Amino acid sequence: MASIPNEPIKVIIIGAGTVGPLLALALKRAPQSRETFAPVVFDSVGDWKDVGGGFVLQPSGLNVFERLGLLDDVYKAGMRLDHLKVTDEKGNPIIDIDTKSAFEDRYGKPQVGMKRHNLIEAIMEHVRAEGIPVHFGKRLTNVTQSDDGSVTATFEDGHVETGHVLVGCDGVRSAVKAAVFGESPELRWTGIEMVMGLTHAEIPDVPRNLNRGMIGKGHSALVYGLSETESIWTIAYRPEKMEPSRWGQQSDRQAVEELTELLRKGEFDEWMVKLVPTAHRVIRIGIRDRDPIDTWTKGLVALAGDAAHPMMPDLGLGANCGLEDVGVLAELLTRAVESPEDLPQSAMSERLAGALKAYEKMRSERAKMMVEANRGVEVINYLENGFLCALRNVFIRALFAIVKTTPSTAKFHKYDYKTAVEEFLVEQKKVEPKGWFESLFGNKGSAVQAH
């Protein structure tokens, strides 16, 4: 490959979900020059279709969209959630707070309910406008790194792509992770299944800007708006028998009928019984995560999003953790190439690899904290002993009455990726004033390893 000054830095991104295209956009819009990076995105699917469910965007994730000029688009595509109300299975209140003021006053941004497809479309509109190549139907089979500071991706159809950096944003069953990092901890099946449904119905007791939840004995439920015209509901419980063959999108009415019958037999509030039959899409999934891993990078290859840190959905942190990855990784790669004109390829590759290791150092502990926090909520949310459930409800009710917000997740919501990078660089400069890349990873090629 030619040296950096003669060509843009090509970043090969595997995965065209939320994280991959957003990372490509963040690199393309790097402040030094629009020609510094040349991101290219590949995905194994044939094309994007309106599939999947939704999630809640938190302030830490919205910070990334704001700096890329997408915040208004995100607000238009989703639904601001102004209130959080959680009850027990009999409708007795546990949490009742104004999240609009709690979040915007404390963290500067609201919570936003978002349909996954709508968010991807909002991102892809900007990706297309920037002329970033996105290739579908490309199944990755191998990744290799060379001594000349390049990384090559090989695809099932024979296509070969060589670049300066490769990032795997390809989900829990990451092909990049398998090709570069080999065996890793197996996915942990929690014993919990979640059924989610998308609905256009309007339920008087559940306006779309309300985040409405219920926690009972061994099960929980939630509903919130994804847009002005659509909401998502979820019901999570421990089934008597796990049936992985049924996981995935279900278009037939059998799933709705079965779940409606389950609700009528169980202890669920009336609003859930009303909502379930209105679903126009039903998805059943097994809830899983993975023990946190310490190694996210190898040479010029890195992992981001669920490829690095799949986690349970209870605290609504998974998607936002991936968005934080984007902000930190793009910022560090941008810092690595701030004055590249006089650097040969080998030196630039060293700085790029150093940026990836810095990203791993910054992000791995935080992601581990999020995974473990969700596991703690799993224990609390799915208690089956009636007495312990009553104690849980009393404790949560008292805690929220005092703090008026979500205290267990404040450390997650107030995170700002740019501030975190600045603080990290300051600490590294204390170690070695000559430069944080060199002080962390040396300048003798230790960070770049052929694979």
Radius of gyration: 23 Å
Low-pLDDT sequence parts: 1-5, 441-451
Q: What structural category do the secondary elements indicate?
A: alpha+beta
Overall number of strands: 20
Shape: globular
In spatial order, strands of the major sheet run: 6-5-14-15-16-13-18-17
**Roughly what percent helix?**
25-40%
Helical stretch count? Answer: 14
- Please outline the major beta sheet: 8 strands, mixed
Average pLDDT figure:
85
First-to-last CA distance: 17 Å
Instruction: Please state roughly what percent of the residues sit in beta strands, choosing from under 5%, 5-15%, 15-25%, 25-35%, 35-45% or over 45%.
Output: 15-25%
Describe the structure.
The protein starts with 8 loop residues before the first strand and ends in a 10-residue tail after the last helix. The longest helix is centred in the C-terminal third of the chain and has 37 residues, at 345-381. The strands form four sheets. An eight-stranded mixed sheet has the order 6-5-14-15-16-13-18-17. A six-stranded mixed sheet has the order 8-2-1-12-20-19, with helices on both faces. It is an alpha+beta fold and 451 residues long. A hairpin with a 5-residue loop joins strand 15 (219-225) and strand 16. The protein contains 14 helices and 20 strands. Helix content is 38%, strand content 24%. The radius of gyration is 23 Å and the shape is globular.
